[in-house]
Design a protein that fits this description.
Length: about 180
């Protein structure tokens, strides 16, 4: 694997290296990512693809956002919360996931590019009840889980739907399945 994988901690690197011993990783050391680390990631992005692979929780989303701001074309790898819970059910993270889940996540990354077409609009989300309703967050979370795109707020949900290229019709079909 020639890509650089951005993770939160040393234990995440250990798990990834069980699958890919030669993997190149950058550790953010949690959600207080230093300017030096962000500068390093940006510099590495000039010669390598960057894959952001953070925990499926709010600190992980914060890190993902920070790294994406400095490397907008970074690839995105997601892991479901239910697939990354520790054995004692007290922690969540990449380090707790089964190796097959980690492999699947890293083999199915999403990436932004200039050709990413916006199929879904904010108006579509409102019309489908995925924004603005009392149970919108619940519906978004169910769809996000099916699509394995993390647990985003409505703005990020919209970006990720467009990132993976889902159509409004496909989104409606998913809604029918979960209702």
């Amino acid at each position: 694997m020639d890509d650089i994988i951005v993770v939160e901690g040393l234990h995440d690197v250990s798990r990834i290296k069980e699958l890919y011993p030669l993997a190149n990783c950058v550790i953010t050391n949690g959600c207080e990512v230093s300017k030096e680390t962000l500068d390093l990631i940006k510099k590495l992005s000039e010669t390598h693809n960057i894959i952001i692979f953070t925990d499926p929780d709010s600190p992980g989303e914060k890190i993902r956002k920070m790294v994406t701001e400095v490397v907008p074309n970074a690839k995105q790898a997601f892991i479901r919360k239910k697939d990354s819970i520790s054995k004692n059910n007290k922690k969540v993270g990449v380090e707790h996931a089964d190796l097959n889940v980690i492999k699947e996540s890293l083999e199915n990354v999403y990436s932004y590019n200039e050709n990413t077409k916006e199929n879904i609009t904010n108006i579509d989300l409102y019309e489908l009840g995925l924004n603005g309703d009392s149970n919108s967050a619940i519906l978004r979370n169910k769809i996000s889980d099916i699509l394995n795109i993390g647990k985003p707020n409505s703005k990020t949900f919209l970006k990720r739907l467009n990132l993976i290229g889902i159509s409004k019709e496909e989104l409606q079909e998913l809604l029918c399945k979960i209702k």
